[in-house]
Write a structure and sequence with these properties.
CATH class: Mainly Beta
Strand content: over 45%
Structural class: mainly beta
Mean pLDDT: 94
Largest sheet: 5 strands, antiparallel
CATH topology: Jelly Rolls
Distance between the termini: 25 Å
Number of domains: 1
Shape: globular
CATH superfamily: Jelly Rolls
Amino acid sequence: MILEGNVITDDRGCVRFVNDFDFKNVKRFYQVENHRAGFIRAWHGHNNESKYVYVAKGSALVAAIPLQDMVNGITTTIHKYVLSANKPSILFIPAGMANGFKTLEENTIVQFFSTSSLEESQQDDIRFAYDFVNIWEEDYR
């Protein structure tokens, strides 16, 4: 699910927002900034934790695959999204999904809002190699 936002610009600058986002279930957040464009951080999943993903600066390819599919080696259901600070939106990744991202621009900042505490998350942590499902190649059009 994507929550759409917007950018308003005037002579003072710009304001980015996603007004439909409700922080009610968020217990923590963290921010990731890679050292270079094209860096991949994947695959990471939780059975109980859901996440919301927001790109505050730059752009990123974000992907999600059902965790059970990953465990069983079935990778036919792949959800891919390009998130950009130029078109603010928040991507909801429900519990039971493995996720990962690739930064598409230098200095991209990706923020994650989690429904689990750090302790809860660490007890529900399932990881795979970044190339376990290699969907990260550019699709030149």
